[in-house]
Design brief:
The chain has ten helices and eleven strands. It has 291 residues and is an alpha/beta fold. The chain has two domains: 28-116, Leucine Dehydrogenase, chain A, domain 1 (Rossmann fold, 3-Layer(aba) Sandwich), CATH 3.40.50; 139-270, Rossmann fold. The strands form three sheets. A six-stranded parallel sheet has the order 1-11-8-7-5-6.
Length: 291
């Protein structure tokens, strides 16, 4: 069994980005610039955005953080988005989710210029992914594909089960795995899938992305399978100072011994998300998606 070290691969990817940024700046061009809009004071969002700002500094990006209280109106938020769309110094930006209930996430996502949508959530980018066109791919699916590629995990002709159908992970993941050049045969599973265990037992690759701690158990996985755990659920724990710990969607101790490759939680898919966001921003700066 090989443990897929997402932290290590993310560090390598960020160094590659930093090297390219240094070349861009040395040639007299502008360094990439990533902006983030943060509404309210959600603890998880605060931590994630702070990590993004720090990562920008590490690779030589410019970064801007725009803060709003959770009382901000939808129109005020949309006005800020329009300003970033029109600002030529900003290569890409994200609006940190979730948003307060009085704001439509759908309207906010649709207001972002697809050319600056480095989160890959805009319907135009989603549609381009479906069509096999150049697009900003959402960070988690992109990170998973990068892990498979860098660990040289064979995908051609392999059967794959994606458990979870969210627009952020499950659906785009199923599309990327089935694209030409990757060539998996994909089954997209969800809460209404009746024969889920049988599907998983027939799968060479399983991507667990449903947000249910330790859902995938040892009796659902065949010998030699590749298992990618996307889950990050906080559960209470008396064994940590914080009083909680992260658990994935995979019951690791049961599943890992049967796997050829598996991602841990934490330290697997998670570290790849910010690295993927930086990569998309670099692509935007170089006009490699929308030329």
């Amino acid at each position: 069994m090989t443990l897929i070290n997402g932290k290590e691969i993310a560090t390598v990817l960020k160094q590659e980005i930093a090297d390219e940024v240094a070349q861009i700046v040395a040639s007299g061009k502008k360094a990439p610039h990533l902006a983030a809009i943060l509404v309210g004071h959600d603890g998880g969002s605060e931590t994630y955005v702070a990590a993004k700002v720090k990562a920008c500094e590490m690779v030589g990006f410019g970064s801007t953080l725009i803060r709003f209280e959770d009382t901000v109106t939808q129109e005020e938020l949309l006005q800020s988005i329009r300003g970033l769309n029109e600002d030529p110094s900003i290569d890409g930006f994200i609006v940190q989710l979730p948003l307060p209930k009085h704001i439509s996430e759908e309207k906010v996502i649709e207001a972002i210029d697809p050319k600056k949508d480095v989160d890959g959530f805009h319907p135009v980018n989603v549609g381009r992914v479906v069509a096999g066109m150049p697009a900003f791919v959402s960070a988690t699916p992109f990170g998973i594909m990068e892990l498979l590629r860098r660990y040289k995990i064979e995908t051609k002709g392999k059967s794959c089960a994606v458990i979870g159908r969210s627009n952020i992970v499950g659906r785009p993941m199923s599309i990327l795995l089935s694209q030409k050049g990757v060539d998996c045969t994909v089954t997209l599973c969800h809460s209404r899938t009746k024969n889920l265990k049988e599907i998983c037992l027939q799968s060479d690759i399983i991507v667990a992305a449903l947000g249910m701690p330790e859902f995938l158990t040892g009796d659902m996985v065949k010998e030699g399978a590749v298992v990618i755990d996307v889950g990050t659920t906080r559960v209470t724990s008396d064994q940590t100072k914080s009083g909680f710990k992260l658990k994935g969607d995979v019951k690791f101790d049961e599943v890992a011994p049967k796997c050829s490759y598996i991602t841990p939680v934490p330290g697997g898919v998670g570290p790849m998300t910010i690295a993927s966001l930086l990569y998309n921003t670099l692509l935007s700066n170089k006009h490699q998606i929308y030329k």
